[in-house]
Amino acid sequence: MALKYQTSFALLLLLVIMRFQGNVAAENGKLAASFIFGDSLADAGNNNYLSTLSKANVPPNGIDFKASGGNPTGRFTNGRTIGDIVGEELGQANYAVPYLAPNTTGKTILNGVNYASGGGGILNATGSLFTNRLGMDIQIDYFNITRKQINKLLGESEARDYVMKKSLFSVIVGSNDFLNNYLLPLVSTGVRVSQNPDAFVDDMINHFRIQLYRLYQLDARKFVISNVGPIGCIPYQRILNELDDEDCVDLANNLATQYNARLKDLVGELNGNLPGATFVLANVYDLVSELIVNYKKYGFTTASRGCCGIGSGGQVAGIIPCVPTSSLCSDREKHVFWDQYHPSEAANVILAKQLINGGKRFISPINLRQLMDL
């Protein structure tokens, strides 16, 4: 009888241990915190707290964002950003909060913080036409403050482990350095005279290298770096240049392609030179190009016009961002683009899921699911 009870107890103990080990394994692959840097493609509301011309805190922006009941949050789309969706899919408890929001204090930051800012870029001069925005240098300055706060919350040893092993660092930046700097009509003429494309891209890459090194020095280890999408094919560029729906602006796409090739080399360099860090490259250029070219395959009806801002008004209506007076389509889920610059939530879902589970054409050397399992 005693032997029977001992055997039953031993079996029960083994089951408990196995379950505990399974939970630990699940937790190890689960995203605890998401730290997001970049521009309006990732901004979750930082620009709400700036005196800036680049804002999305008015309807109909956010009309499909369930967490706010359809109210605008400062996200430059109708619903979730790619960063929001990635966090959800990888098990993040809550969305990363905007750094500048007044409630971004205490244990809230342990879910992650979003530093992205509409109009921001790699170079400090980028986005100056908007008056205020957070460039990458400032965003990393702010993360430095957050990093010290995490030390106070968890203690230095646990904080370091938390940031290095359980946190994802997403950087979605670079488009504005072309659209709102080098390619900006009239304003950028002097820049293009003083710097040819090669020199401008060199400047971007050299600045970006320093910025990513700074994040590494602050214990960031798991990185996803987005390249620049096909900016010559976004509705803004097509409308501005009076192109047909199938045409794109070659200069803009050529600059993006040139930068992306250098960025790929930079990611390889950092993976070789920074011990313990893993940088994965999100090939957003090919991802978005795939959606634009084969939009019908993914259930969309258009990839040439944004949902918010369509209708009469010609060139001017096509350039003005999404505001309450903008015309609005009735089938938002059928549009690749929300407005003239930013993808819709429906497109963001497709893009995010490819980054999480996709193959090396779109995310390399590993996908985000594999990155979080390291």
Automatic annotation (TrEMBL):
The subcellular localization recorded is: Secreted
Main localization is secreted
Signal sequence annotation: 1-25
- Work out whether the entry's keyword set contains Cell membrane: no
Query: Which InterPro entries does the annotation name?
Result: GDSL, GDSL_esterase/lipase, SGNH_hydro_sf, SGNH_plant_lipase-like
Q: Does the keyword Hydrolase apply?
A: yes
Write down the Gene3D superfamilies for this protein, in alphabetical order.
SGNH hydrolase
Q: For this entry, list what GO says about its biological process.
A: lipid catabolic process
For this UniProt entry, what's an example GO CC term?
extracellular region
Name the CDD domains on file: SGNH_plant_lipase_like
Q: Which GO terms describe its molecular function?
A: hydrolase activity, acting on ester bonds
What Pfam families is this protein classified in? Lipase_GDSL
| Keyword line | Hydrolase, Lipid degradation, Lipid metabolism, Secreted, Signal
In the record, the note on similarity to other proteins reads: Belongs to the 'GDSL' lipolytic enzyme family.
Q: Which PANTHER family match?
A: GDSL-LIKE LIPASE/ACYLHYDROLASE-RELATED, OS07G0668300 PROTEIN
The name this protein carries in UniProt is: GDSL esterase/lipase
The scientific name of the source species is: Phaseolus vulgaris (Kidney bean)
Its lineage reads: Eukaryota, Viridiplantae, Streptophyta, Embryophyta, Tracheophyta
